[in-house]
Design brief:
about 10% strand; about 675 residues; 4-stranded antiparallel beta sheet
């Protein structure tokens, strides 16, 4: 299995290189040689599948001759976490990344039909270049099949923090999002090489873009929930460098989704869209680099490695080539028309895009400033959450406000009177909501502004559904509910986006409520004595230390009462793993509609008191509900009910003959 895995990687390395060469020489017209290149794509994927299968077998059989197996598994590790170790370490996660990229390359080639067929050789070539890079990294610096000099009887085991269901599924979702963005990037590069700078590449890669966005969104949200239930500090987002590394491509990709709509409908933002998808891809690679370079400190990051320079070289070269191609096609990537009115949908989309990029830059600067500071001055300066909150909250507030207004605007130009009519009800409801919050004791200005903006956005999205249903009811004489369902199903792309925006409003309300109004109490518990925190009372009914497989467990059973009524039993724990020095915290959460009661076991004295920390996190369930609504909206958008209606403005490039096309390609070469 060791030899099978390693030589499968070697074979895949040669197949990707062979495919690159063959597809380059067969790019001009369909031929048997081009089909050979496509077969090389399949062969490279099969080699990666064989390598992945070999690693899974080695993990499952506890073959401790392999360094990776010894480092991330042990005999007492449950099977599900043995398999999770596949992506629990550096070289395994790189193999997963490359395997997924190989799978996507095969799907791209298989789906080569119609207008895509001419672009596919270039698309496949770009994807193969990325595969070849990752295979080179594994063979040179991160071989998952490297063997140890001395074989131990048992391995070290998986990090206890990763032994959680949500860490079983969080990394694959995140990697699916990262990797799938390679495909729309490859389509954009193919379009630039061919000079096909109309929206054909957007249509061809649209599904891939949405799939990438949905998976990346799911990966980020699953990671946030894992942090909430596993790390024990009471929150779900700490502006950790690796958290930021996943947020940055998400922000740019979200901007790209909005501006792509403007190009498909109105022929706008062509050059902008090329730049956005290039930046999204580079940020995905940057996120992978950040976790493996050792330049940042993070609970998620891998140790410093030899691959830092390889990733830097890859990012610099791909960025330079992409920008060079975009500059070469500068004249052809001009928009079909310009924005003619400030009060228009395209102006709002442009403003939203600028805000998303400003957010991305703010997050990038805060993430990398410690590294820049150390490089220049020799001193590493810490950038903490208050900096990110102070910089990003005003920008996020502006995005939410614009998102609430933009659906009311028309393409080209809108009337102020129509905008006022559309905003009257949402503004009245939002103002009343804000007044209600003030009367209930809310005083923080930024939180109040966010609550009002989120309410405005949420009411606007609900009214979108209501007005669509009423319109369909008038046209068909159906009852309202059947009309609403029918209209929504017929316009799934539109209402999927509305659903996602509604989810964002709900999630932000949950974020603001839980972060602004959270309360923290440190309580001391003694057998038979009650301790109060806020309007709650806690009684410890049991405290015990007990051995378990591979660890010792200390736990306390705590009954929680409110107004004399038992509302739940919390059981916070501390795990002391025999192969890891750092103890692991297992929090206990009592979820309630109004708030979560979040209990952490902090310490104890022998035959003495037990110390616990309790966080009261109000409204946090809205964050998790909003997350599910966002994902539901994204999935619905993947299956539109009908094609986008063609704009009155032509967005197509002039027809190019084969001879002219070949001349253009030769000019680039």
């Amino acid at each position: 299995m060791i030899e099978l895995g390693y030589y499968s990687l070697v074979f895949g390395w040669f197949m990707t290189l062979f495919g690159i060469v063959v597809l380059w020489f067969s790019r001009h017209e369909p031929s048997a040689l081009r089909q050979t290149g496509y077969r090389a794509v399949t062969a490279a994927f099969l080699s990666l599948a064989a390598a992945s299968g070999a690693l899974l077998v080695l993990l499952g059989t506890h073959d401790f001759r392999v360094q990776y197996v010894a480092a991330y598994t042990s005999l007492d590790l449950p099977l599900v976490y043995v398999l999770t170790a596949f992506w629990g370490g550096q070289s395994g996660s790189l193999l997963l990344w490359t395997f997924l990229l190989g799978l996507f390359s095969v799907l791209v080639v298989v789906r080569a039909r119609g207008e895509r067929e001419q672009m596919i050789p270039y698309v496949a070539l770009v994807i193969l270049l990325a595969q070849h890079f990752f295979l080179s990294v594994m063979l040179y610096a991160a071989n998952p099949f490297a063997v140890v000099d001395v074989v131990q009887a048992d391995g070290r085991g998986l990090n206890p923090l990763l032994q959680n269901f949500f860490m079983v599924i969080h990394p694959p979702f995140l990697y699916l999002g990262y990797v799938a963005f390679t495909v729309p990037f490859a389509y954009s590069i193919a379009a630039l090489i061919l000079g096909r700078t109309d929206s054909a590449w957007l249509r061809a890669s649209r599904t891939w873009t949405l799939v990438s966005w949905v998976f990346l969104t799911a990966g980020i949200l699953l990671g946030a929930y894992w942090a909430y239930i596993e790390l024990g500090w009471g929150g779900y987002w700490a502006w950790d460098p690796v958290e930021n590394a996943s947020l940055m491509p998400w922000l740019v990709a979200t901007a790209f989704l909005h501006s792509a709509l403007a190009e498909e409908r109105q022929g706008l933002f062509r050059r902008w869209n090329f730049a956005l998808i290039i930046l999204t891809f580079e940020l995905c690679i940057f996120g992978t680099f950040l976790t493996r370079s050792g330049i940042v400190t993070s609970v998620h990051a891998f140790a410093d490695s030899q691959m830092k320079n390889l990733f830097l070289a890859f990012m610099i070269s791909t960025t330079a080539i992409s920008i060079g191609l975009l500059m070469f096609r500068a004249r052809q990537t001009r928009a079909a028309r310009t924005i003619t009115s400030v009060l228009s949908k395209e102006s709002a989309l442009l403003a939203v895009n600028v805000l998303f990029l400003a957010l991305t830059f703010a997050v990038f600067w805060g993430t990398m400033y410690p590294a820049f500071s150390e490089l220049i001055t020799g001193e590493k300066v810490s950038i903490t959450a208050p900096f990110f909150n102070r910089v990003t909250w005003p920008l996020a507030l502006a995005v939410i406000a614009l998102a609430a207004v933009a659906p009311l605007l028309s393409w080209r130009s809108s009337s102020a009177a129509g905008l006022r009519r559309g905003l009257t009800v949402p503004v009245v409801v939002s103002v009343l909501f804000g007044i209600g919050l003030v009367l209930s004791g809310a005083r923080q200005p930024i939180a109040l502004a966010f609550f009002v903006a989120c309410c405005l956005m949420g009411v606007r999205m609900v009214l979108e559904f209501f007005r669509g249903g009423r319109s369909h009811q008038s046209a068909t004489d159906q009852a309202f509910l059947p009309a609403l369902v029918s209209h929504t199903l017929q316009h799934r792309r539109r209402y999927g986006a509305v659903t996602a925006h509604l989810g964002i409003a709900l999630a932000f309300i949950g974020i603001l409520a839980s972060s602004t109004y959270t309360r923290q109490y440190d309580i001391t518990l003694k057998q038979g004595k009650a301790a109060s925190f806020g309007e709650y009372r806690a009684e410890m009914v049991e405290f015990r230390e007990t051995p378990a497989i591979g660890k010792d467990v200390v736990y306390a059973k705590i009954q929680v009462y409110k107004q004399g009524r038992l509302i739940g039993v919390a059981q916070p724990e501390k795990h002391f793993h025999r192969k890891f020095e750092q103890p692991q915290t297992e929090v206990s959460i009592l979820p309630k509609l109004k708030e979560d009661i979040y209990v952490v076991l902090m310490g104890w004295e022998q035959d003495g008191p037990v110390f616990a920390r309790v966080n009261i996190n109000p409204g946090i369930w809205l964050l998790w509900l909003g997350s599910l609504v966002i994902l539901a909206g994204g999935v619905v958008v993947l299956f539109p009910g009908r094609q986008i209606e063609a704009s009155h403005v032509s967005t197509a490039s002039p027809v190019v003959t084969d001879r002219e096309l070949q001349a253009q390609v030769s000019q680039i070469e």
